[in-house]
Structure formats: structure tokens, C-alpha cells
Amino acid sequence: MNEKDKAPRFVALCMLGVVLFNFPVLALFNVGGTVLGVPVLYAYIFAAWALLIALMALVAER
Amino acid sequence: MLLGPVIILAAFAYLGVLFAIAYYADQRADAGRPVIANPYVYSLSLAVYATAWTFYGSVGRAASDGIGFLPIYIGPTLMIALWWVVMRKILRISKQNRITSLADFIASRYGKSALLGGIVTVIAVIGILPYISLQLKAVSASYLILVQYPEVVMPPVLGEASVRQDPALWVALLLAAFTIAFGTRHLDAAEHHQGMVAAIAFESLVKLLAFLAVGIFVTFGMYNGFGDLFGRAAAVPKLKAMMTPLEGVAGGYASWVWLTILSMMAIMFLPRQFQVTVVENLDERHLNKAIWLFPVYMLAINVFVLPIAFGGLLHFPEGGVDADTFVLTLPMVEKQEGLALLVFIGGLSAATGMVIVETIALSTMVCNDLVMPVLLRMRSLALNEKPDLTGLLLGIRRGAIVLILLLGYLYFKLAGEAYALVSIGLISFAAVAQFAPVVLGGIFWKGGTRKGALCGLLGGFAVWSYTLLLPALARSGWLPIGLLEQGPFGIALLKPLALFGLSGLDQITHAMIWSMLANIGGYVGVSLVATPSVDEHRQASLFVDVFRQGGEAGGARFWRGTASVPELHSLLARFLGAAAADEAFEEYARSRGRRWRRDPLDADAELVHYVEVKLAGAIGAASARVMVASVVKEEAMTIDEVRTILDEASQVVVYSHRLEQKSRELEAATAELRAANERLKELDRLKDDFVSTVTHELRTPLTSIRAFTQILLEHPQVDAEQRSKFLGIITKETERLTRLINQVLDLSKIESGKAEWRESVLDLRELIGDAVTGMSQVFEERDIKIDVDVPEKATPVRADVDRIIQVMLNLLSNAAKFCEPGRGRIRVALKEEAGALRVEVRDNGPGIDPADQGVIFDKFRQVGDTLTAKPHGSGLGLHISRQIVEHFGGRMWVESRLGEGACFAFTLPHG
């Protein structure tokens, strides 16, 4: 990927992260219950975090 | 059974390993084969971010509010996504200006201001002290707990242990000695500490493995996996509430958001992060991998925080065990002494890593931006005349390291006991966040000025001291607690924890709101009002436009004056040592195609700038400026001149960019036109040639036909034998005419792409046989011997049978034509090649002159003297044959020497 194209993609990923880890999206998962035995909020945060890192790896290494 | 001596021995053994790694890496670096020059070590060294706070404190925080520890790691992940834009720029600027610390960066940006560098240093040192005290507290507490094994007893509160028995003091002194050995062995102009970076990367591995080991032990050893652990926790109402922590908590989201922002700043502006990310960076491209590897590290080290926290809360339901120590105490109550020792080592590695890098970074700042500027200005010391100052520089740094660690210890004694680990650390985060506006503003906004930066920093730092540092001291009993409860002099509006009546927020959020308001407000407001000086104007442009400047020489444009080479050399030698100075001058001379000490060097603006930048690496930008100014006579430039240069430069850059682009476009268009014109001319010429050749070729048989028909017409009395001979000639000539016309039509079809191709899979052996049989009559007539040499099996090819037969017949008849009747021999061979089949037709005729071999495939080219020899055929056969072969992806060529026959060959790719 062209170096120039990387900048907007990274900025977009940062914004995605800001949305994922903020009110109100965070509030949607701030509920009881579990996913595979793990409380929903914890599961969501770690899954979203892993997803964000994977996308960053994709952009960085292309 | 663990005993104090065993633990201490293990700790020393671990430090010994670290030292060995650092020593090895330094050796390799000196030999020019660095071990740390790869993105993986770089990423691991960034993980110095994870300190004892992460190792012990995260669990403590998680045990009180569930996910409250996570913004500290999610924030950096978000910030790192922006590194491509922000950090790449900082890296480029720092490399071009030999920036060696954060203070240097800020001072350099705002006109190489020594005052600003000093202030940044003071803020950084004071701001980081709580953070260092946190590490000391964690290490000494973990030792005091572990030494009680197998009992789990919290360490005695402050005051009960005398200073001499206090492990924290010993830890501080030991770390000081260790850091001095690591970081100040010699003076490097680029401030690279490769040995230290290697050791830090190793420490990052150790602390990660230790933490994962505890996590796995708690989750799968003490409980049956995540589900079991969280299920049991959910049965306890208090713990169940922690699973949805964001509701009901006052300012739950605000605190989450501010912690995220705070750690976004911390990952950039903690002095140690700046050190490993920027100063120790060997290659900008390492950023590519670090951008995702470092977040992966943070994710990995956090996976087991919540399980350990819940495990601890379930195991010690009655309290009495500090949650900050769960990582250590859980293995202890389970009688896992090996694991407990590993945890202690892990915590030690987390703490030592932080302390080593942080104190090296701070000591560089203290030396370059605080002490040296002052010493250099003291005329009574006459430092300018000393021949070698490297010893002094190292001495100052070593002193600074000891001082900083002792101050950290002092803070620990004064204020450390009242707070949990994370709360102590956050105070430091809030302090370094004060650097964010001046740095980020500095690299993206040319309008930021020195006065603005001073106001912003001082304002933000003042508010930080008032709202965070003061309460910390008051809570520990060193200031009257009334200050917090009633406000100073009883003025409620000035209460440090509810400034101007802003209440209902947690302490950090409250402090961040007010300090950022003061900081950004002061920076932007004053910058807009104040007029920048010449230096500021120049530096602003160099920083903001770093990607548009032409390398290190960019700064030389702004200098006018006179200097002498020996003076510049001796200046560099005083601070770097003679050998390093020689090396630097050699490098400079080489870059200009000269030899140092052999060819004269000009003491021009570029050399002066080069020396200043080199010097900045050792003593900081502000001091370097002062020193260089002391040996050169500088002509002051007015601000208008600088502005003119800048404006001219940027306008010229823009213009020349545009011009270049225009002329590139024009050139491309011209080249295209020229090529098209050439092609048209060529086509025109070819058409003319073609028409004239065709008409010529048509006229020859026509003339002969006309002549003979005329004879027959005018002389009806010609006898029967003669008549039939004439008619035979006429028939032959018409056949020739027909053939020629057919070939011309064929050629025009092929060339215009209208020819019909019927592709099928065919066996070349069969095809060769058919062609040879078809020609057998001709061979017999001319008494020519023919050999066919085909293998037993041949890979089939895809092509048009009729066309390939046409090619074969053409080659065979050509061969027959050129063979001497009676002695002719033709050999046809079929051979397998890589990916293709090759057909050869070899004759023993006169051969073809190498000079003609290139053109015989052209239209109407016939070899031989056309004046004496009658042409054989139309001259189109070979041309058409080659077109056919090339259509099917093959190629056709001839090998021959005069007098030795000719070999025509073609290939067809496997079908």
C-alpha cells in the first residue's frame, strides 16, 4: 500500500476505536449475563480490542 | 521454604543476567552488528510501558471497580493507531535535529530556548517522582510479603521499620548503581543505549511470562477455567456489581474517557516512552511492526487481570490482604513457592525496566537542559576553555540518576503509603500529559510560540501541583488536611479537589479538566498574541514542514557568519572526545567528496550547522546553540529576512512542484505524440513499399502472360508443340499470380486481425509426416534426400492444423528451392524443450549471410542478388509463417552460415 494511503486508514481505525470504547456503544454491553462463562462487558471489550489490533496489523503490514 | 537470602540471591542473579545481556548487546553494537536492530526487539522495548503498576496495580484497580484498569492500555492502542501520522513525524524531526530527550524536543521547537528546556525538565522530574516511588513501593512490598512465606502478612506501615532496614531505600540505591552501569558507560552523540534496550526487551518477556503463569495458575489451577471463576464471583452480590461497573457510578463514563485520554498522552510523553520510541529508535520502518505488536503485548498482559482480581476477592473475602498484592499472595496461599518467586522476579523486572529507562531519560534531560546551560553561562567556570568535558557530562548524569532515585524514595516516604499503586501512577500520567499541547501543537501548528509554550506549561503544571500533588501530600499528613476539606484560608471555591466548585468527579478527571484548560488556553492564547522571534520562526518551519525539508542541511539556510574549522573541531572534541570529533568531521568531509585533514574544508553555514546538530546530541539543542555561538561570529538576521527566506523557500517549493509536474505531463504527452508520429510515418512507408512491391511482383507474371498470349494471337500458325509449351508457361504464371494474390490477402487478414484461427489439439509428429508426404513429389523431382527425426512421443500442442501445415510446407519448399538438385539433403527434426516443442528444417544449400538473417522474415525480402538470380517465390512466405507461429505463442528463427546450409526452426508451446 502506498504510504500516503495509510494515514487516513489509521486515522479511521483510531476513530473506530473511540466509538467502540465509549458511550453509548459501551453502555450496550454494560449488562448482566455471560458469553461462554465470561461476563458480557469483559468479553466485548477484549473482543473489540483484539479486532482493532488485527485491523491495525492489516493496515500496517500491507 | 523461602528465606530472605534466597530471595535476594535470586534477585541478584536476575540482575546479573540482565547485565550480561546488556554487555553482550553493547559489544555487538560496538562491533557494528547490533542485536536490537529489528522491529521485534523495538516492540518489546516499548513494553517498558508495563511497569509494577501493570504487574501488581492493575489487579488492585480491577478488584475495586472491574474494568477501571483497562483505559490505561486501550488509550495507548488508540494513540498508536495515530502513530503513523504523529510518531513518524516526531521520529523524523528528532533524527534530523539529533533530539535526545523530550525537553530537548520542546526547547528546540520553540527557538532552542534554554529556559523552556529547563522548565520541561523540572516538570518531568517532579511529575515522574510519584511514578518512581510506585516502583520502589511495589518492589519493597513484594519482598516484605514474600519473605514471610508461607504466612500471608501485609508489610508493616510506615514508621515501624527504621530507614536502615527499609528495603525501599536499598532498592533505590541498588537501582541507581545498576542504571549508572547501564546507561552512562560512555557518551554517545546519538544517545543510543543498545545494551539497555536489549535488557529492557528481555525484561518485557520475563514480566509477561511471569504474569501469564500466575493468570493460568489462578484460572485453571485454583478454579476450573474462566466460566467457573466468573460464575462463583457472580454468586457474590458485591462482585456481581463489578461486572456491570459503568452504571450507577458517578461520572463512570467521564472517568473512563479521561483515563483513556490521559494514557493516550502518557504513551507519547512519558520520558521513558520518548526514550525508547524516539531516541533509541534505529530505523523508522520498525514502527510498522511495533504499531500492532505492542498493542498485542498489552492485550496479552491484561487477559488474566480480571480472573486474578476475582480469584483474590473470592479467596480473601474478609479483606485484610491488599488487592495490589493478589498476584503474589494467591500463589503463596496455595503453597506454590516457585511460582511466587517467579512473580517476585516478574515484578522486579517490571519495576527495574521502568526505573532504568526513566532515570536515564531524566538524567539526560537534567544534564543537557538544566545543568549544562547554567554551567556554560557561568563565566567564572570558564568551561569554554576546558579541553575535554566528556567526564563532566557523565558525572552530571550519574549524579542526576542517584538524585532522582533518592527523590523518588523521599516521595515514597512522604506520600506513597496513602495511595494505591494505580492512583500514584496516575498522578505522574497527569503531569506528563501537560507536554501534549506544546508538542502536538508544535509539530502541526507553526503559530505556536515560545511564550505561549511557557505559559501553557507553567499554567498546566501549577494546576496539576495544586489539584494532585498538594492533596497527595496533605493526605499523608505533611500538610494540614483542612486545606482539602475547607480550602486554603477557608475559601471553599479554592478547594484543591473541587476547584471553583466543580465536584462530583474523580480526582484525576477533575485535575485534567482544569489543567488542560489552563495549559491549552495559555499556549494557544499567548501564542496568538505574542510575536515569534527569528529563531522560533525558523524552528517552527523546520519542525512542521519536516517532510518537505531537504534533510539535515535544511537548517543551514538560516545562518550567516564566519567561523574557522579548527575552532569548530576543538569545540566538538571538548564534548564528544577527540576520536568522535575526528570521526564526525571525516563523515562530513566524505559527504562532500573530500578527505578530512587532507583537503581544506570550508567553514560555511552547512559545517556550522552540522557541528551544532552533532553537539546537540550530546548537550542538548539550547546549549549547543550557545556553544556554537561562542566560537563563530554570527551576523544576526532580522525576522523579516528569515520570513523572506521561509516564504521564498515555501513559494519556490510550491512553484517548482507545480512546474515539475506540468513539465512532466508535457514531456509525457510529447513523447506519446512523437511515438505515434513515428509509427504513422513507418506505416505510411511500409504501405508505399508494399504497394510498389506488390505491383512489381504482379507485373512480372502479367508481362510474361501478355507476351505469350500476344504471340499466340498474332501467330496462329505456331505449331502444336510450341503452342502447348506457351500455354503451359501461361498456366504456370497465372498459378503464380493466384498464389501471390492469395498470400497478399492472407497477410492482410492476419495483420488486420481478421484471420480465422481454428485451434485444436494436434500431434506435431503426424503433422510433420503429412507435410513431408505432401512435398514428396517435389523432392523426387529434384532428387533430394529427406530425413525425418521425430521422437516416439511428443507433447500435444494447441494450434490450427491448416496454418501449421502451411508453415511446414513453406519451410520445406524453401529448403527444396535452395538445395542443389541431385545433392540436396533435408533433415526435419522434432525436439522437446522446456514448455515447448521445437521443429527444425535443415538444408545443405548455400546458406544465408548472417547480415541477411535479420531481414529475411520481413515482407518481400529475398536473399541473394536480385539482379542476377531470378527470385524464388513471392517473399511473403516466411513473413506469414512467422506471424502464424507467433500467433500461437511460439517463435521462429534461422541459424546459418554461408556455405553450410541453413536451419529454420520454430517452437510451439505445449497445449
Summarize the structure.
The complex is a heterodimer of chains A (62) and B (911). Chain A is mostly helical and 62 residues long.
Mean pLDDT of chain A: 86
Largest sheet data of chain A: 2 strands, antiparallel
In percent, how much strand structure appears in the residues of chain A? Answer: 5-15%
Cα distance spanning the termini of chain A:
6 Å
Strand line-up of the largest beta sheet of chain A: 1-2
Anisotropy-based shape of chain A: elongated
Pair with the most extensive interface? A-B, 34 and 40 residues
How many domain units of chain A?
A: 1
Number of strand segments of chain B: 9
Name of the CATH architecture of the largest domain in chain B: Up-down Bundle
Low-confidence stretches of chain B: 865-870
H/I helix tally of chain A: 3
What is the CATH top level name of the largest domain in chain B? Mainly Alpha
Structural class of chain A: mainly alpha
The whole-number mean of residue pLDDT values of chain B reads: 82
SSE blueprint:
The complex is a heterodimer of chains A (62) and B (911).
Chain A: H1 3-20, H2 25-28, E1 34-35, E2 38-39, H3 40-61
Antiparallel strand pairs in A: 1-2
Helix pairs in contact in A: 1-3
Chain B: H1 4-30, H2 39-46, H3 52-65, H4 71-81, H5 87-97, H6 102-109, H7 114-146, H8 167-183, H9 194-222, H10 225-234, H11 237-241, H12 252-269, H13 271-279, H14 287-302, H15 305-315, H16 326-333, H17 337-377, H18 390-415, H19 421-432, H20 436-444, H21 450-475, H22 482-485, H23 507-529, H24 534-544, E1 561-562, H25 565-576, H26 578-591, H27 605-619, H28 621-631, E2 633-634, H29 639-714, H30 720-752, E3 760-762, H31 764-781, E4 785-789, E5 797-799, H32 801-818, E6 825-833, E7 836-843, H33 850-853, H34 877-887, E8 892-896, E9 902-909
Parallel strand pairs in B: 4-6
Antiparallel strand pairs in B: 1-2, 3-5, 6-7, 7-9, 8-9
Helix pairs in contact in B: 1-9, 1-17, 2-9, 2-14, 3-15, 3-17, 4-12, 4-14, 6-7, 7-8, 7-17, 7-18, 7-19, 7-21, 8-17, 8-18, 9-15, 9-16, 9-17, 10-15, 12-13, 12-19, 13-17, 15-16, 16-17, 17-18, 17-28, 21-23, 24-29, 25-26, 25-27, 27-28, 29-30, 30-34, 31-32, 32-34
